[in-house]
């Protein structure tokens, strides 16, 4: 089973040179720690920044400089600041190449649910609906099962959805999976020590297994 | 040049009536109109509708207005940081319209720019789409969203001049420029108010045409929600 850090580390391997990337809150934020230094990429923050840098030192803290998770941040050289309408213009306009975000559920046709639990959580969708409706490549980082042990990879989402047919790839603590264009989770890689049988058992949606499934290495 | 200066926050917000439709800039607590909110708290008004990306925290920002029961309805994208907000929402005391952040930004932008409606992919196939017109363009389905315009917009900038021109700093810019344009009366508070002519016209983010009242703010707290550092 992968730790949260290892999920982030595995997703970082999907990053390509020259990409503009939006990282969601939680595990996706950790991805920044594992992007190889020889890649030139730019992190977008939807509250209006291209070029998120590391967290500040105590002396560098600036209350006027935060990320979308409201954390204090710094800017890298060559950063640009803009307003929220401009920020979502670059998101909807397809200029952000890769979006990495968390999810409560993903369905086998690529629907994602991550904003609302009726009667329990009413925090709002923030920028997630705009991001998933527009990004050309969406990778989900999440645990394979909920805390109560239910599969989060389903035939159909049971929670209110954030976007339809948008997820391309999912990295969980157990596996790397891709969404088949005709529906289904294609099993691509297994976490170290996790069997295909275990993944099958914990995937409620249609799982597509073709040939030998390699084990991830770290 | 037209002088937009008013004495202080109290003077700037004195005619905002009960039931007014307001916009307030800020993302989280970053770039919120602290002084105008404080002055509103002293007013005996209620039933406000507030468009703001977030709803403050329990003891700061819009959270203070909620606590005093001055708000009838919030139009926001994310409201996770406020227990009083959640309580009022679940008990039915407060109406809330949750809308995607990019849609919120564009609805406000459209309001200021005189565009009554537009089509966006955000929310297609979700409960956000309920009751809204959809249309297909070049093989993809989009949702029609309407503009938002306010009776009063309360914004906060870093620097401003007496003509109402504004310059923002860092990510405190966020929704402030669009809200300035979408308000019938826009009230801008600034950390540093200078005479017209002292700001470089090439560096203005919000032209003074959008600002009706400007004042020198004071005692900025600039509270940080998630103080995060590296070792």
Structure description:
The complex is a heterodimer of chains A (218) and B (231). By secondary structure, chain A is α/β, with parallel strands linked by helices. Chain A is built from five helices and 13 strands. The mean pLDDT of chain A is 96. Chain B has 231 residues and is of the alpha/beta class. Chain B has one domain: 3-Layer(aba) Sandwich (Glutaconate Coenzyme A-transferase). In chain B, strands 1, 2, 3, 4, 8, 9, 10 and 11 form an eight-stranded mixed sheet that branches. In chain B, strands 5-7-6 form a three-stranded antiparallel sheet. The radius of gyration of chain B is 18 Å and the shape is globular. The chains are: A alpha/beta (218), B alpha/beta (231).
List keywords for this structure.
heterodimer, A: 218 residues, alpha/beta, Glutaconate Coenzyme A-transferase, ten-stranded mixed beta sheet, three-stranded mixed beta sheet, 5 helices, B: 231 residues, eight-stranded mixed beta sheet, three-stranded antiparallel beta sheet, 6 helices, 11 strands, 20% helix, globular, transferase (chain B)
Total count of helical runs of at least 4 residues of chain B: 6
* Structural class computed from helices and strand pairing of chain B: alpha/beta
Beta-strand content bin of chain B: 25-35%
H and E order of chain A = HEHEEEHEEEHEEEEEHE
Helical amount of chain B: 10-25%
Mean pLDDT of chain A: 96
Task: Briefly note the CATH topology name of chain A.
Answer: Glutaconate Coenzyme A-transferase
Shape of chain B: globular
Low-confidence stretches of chain A: none
Measured as a percent range, the helix fraction of chain A is 10-25%
Number of domains of chain A: 1
CATH architecture term of chain B: 3-Layer(aba) Sandwich
Q: C-alpha Rg of chain B, in Å?
A: 18 Å
Order of helices and strands of chain B: HEHEHEHEHEEEEEHEE
Question: Which oligomerization state do the chains in this entry correspond to?
Answer: heterodimer
